[in-house]
Amino acid sequence: MTGRHHLYIPGPTNVPDRLLRAMHRAQEDHRSASFPTLTRSILSRLPAVVGSTTATPFVFPASGSAMWEAALVNSVNPGARLLAVRFGQFSHLFIQTARSLGYTVDVIEVPWGEGAHPELIEAALRADTSHEIQGVLLVHNETATGVTSDVGAVRTAMDRAQHPALLFVDGVSSIASLDFQMDAWRVDCAITGSQKGFMLPAGLGILYCSDRVVNSLESITTPRAYFDLRPMLANNRQGYFPSTPALTLLWGLDEALTMLLDEGMSNVVARHARLAEGVRQAVHAWGLSLCATEPRWYSNTVSALVVPDGADARRVIELAAARWNLALGSGLTQLAGRVFRIGHMGDVNELMLAGALAGTEMALLDAGIAVTPGSGVAAAATSWRATMPASAV
User: Fold this and answer.
1) Alpha carbon distance 101, 107 (integer Å)
2) How far apart are CA 371 and CA 42, in angstroms?
3) Which domains does the chain have, with CATH numbers?
4) Is the whole-model pTM more than 0.90?
5) What is the spatial order of strands in the sheet that 204-209 belongs to?
6) How far apart are CA 298 and CA 281, in angstroms?
7) Model confidence over 359-391: pLDDT tens digits?
8) Quick one: three-class SS letters along the chain?
9) How far apart are the C-alpha atoms of 230 and 353, rounded to whole Å?
10) Tell me: the pLDDT tens digits for 6-16?
11) What is the pLDDT of residue 187?
12) CA 251 to CA 249: how far, in whole Å?
């Protein structure tokens, strides 16, 4: 098929040419005297992406979900009791990881399409009068449902409960795209990966830890090996890594940080919000609904669209790929066949998303779902033109 492939799944996202060029280079000695320049450039700038001046970042050759394990085994002792909210596939997998590691997890069940309700977390923590719960597990942006939770409100609820639990936040599909204030929200472990907001291929797991976690590393008795942060911390201080790093991805990450920080994180956040609203206007123009049940839950990095009764979202995805060279995200587990997803994070702009919406319109029509041709693209364009930043005029 001629022309570019259009990738609009919620990760991996499009890798800009600038990052491809940064990674396209010969390998080098990661023990050389000059290598610490790269390591320090990355580690010194990573905290700015999450609104922190105090967090310690760690970068592993791994996935974002591997950082669930890295965060837990370095911060809570064996058999610890945790509290989590389950409202989508990735919050479910976070809970499964904790249980597989031997932790006890109390689960607050929330319908898929909603986010974390701070008052439910507060009530659960107030009921834990002996403070047995050692950590709260929260997915900031639930990729399966296109739902974003209010981390700041969760922290406020924890404070009202006067509970000392650690706060673990999965930011895999939010960090480097949505507003994330690690210091202000007093997040203890923030978890992400390279393949979404950082605009890189999958392969890097990134973990941010608070001073509270870093200062307690020696007191944790949970068995650790590859994900032990202590040798990583010791080596990073010298500008190195305890094992062979993913060099190609590190060069890409260094350049990605330059792109993000040159744009400015507030501008990155505003761009994602503006583009996402255009996509939502397209969805409304098609007469479809979002999996997110209320505007307060709407995600600015991924929209999960519910197809009409009797239709199969999998058919929309198949036709988009076969006829229009467009990759859309599938519905996961209980949402399979009911939902398809449009990713709008990372290296995206108006015309890129307009192409994705045009392809989606055609795939919807091909699948027998009645939409007015051009309606979604027109609604998005109207939204984007009305909200064009003054600096671009």
Assistant:
1) 16
2) 46
3) 6-12+265-392 (3.90.1150.10), 17-262 (3.40.640.10)
4) yes
5) 56-61, 204-209, 189-193, 166-170, 133-139, 81-86, 104-109
6) 12
7) 999 999 999 999 999 999 999 999 999 999 877
8) CCCCCEEECCCCCCCCHHHHHHHCCCCCCCCCCCCHHHHHHHHHHHHHHCCCCCCEEEEEECCCCHHHHHHHHCCCCCCCEEEEEECCHHHHHHHHHHHHCCCEEEEEECCECECCCHHHHHHHHHHCCCCCEEEEEEECEECCCCEECCHHHHHHHHHHCCCCCEEEEECCCCCCCCCCCHHHHCCCEEEEECCCCCCCCCCEEEEEECHHHHCCHHHCCCCCCCCCHHHHHHHHHCCCCCCCCCHHHHHHHHHHHHHHHHHCHHHHHHHHHHHHHHHHHHHHHHCCEECCCCHHHECCCEEEEECCCCCCHHHHHHHHHHHHCEEEEECCHHHCCCEEEEECCCCCCHHHHHHHHHHHHHHHHHCCCCCCCCHHHHHHHHHHHHCCCHHHC
9) 43
10) 999 999 999 99
11) 98
12) 5
Omega within 30 of 0 (cis) for the link into 12: yes
The region, left, alpha or beta by phi > 0 then psi within -120 to 50, assigned to residue 85 is: beta
Distance CA 89, CA 83 (A): 17
- Is the Cβ–Cβ distance between 108 and 140 less than 8 Å? no
Q: How far apart are CA 139 and CA 146, in angstroms?
A: 12
CB 235 within 8 A of CB 242: yes
Average pLDDT over residues 180-190: 98
Torsion, CA 272, CA 275, CA 279, CA 280, rounded to 10 = 70
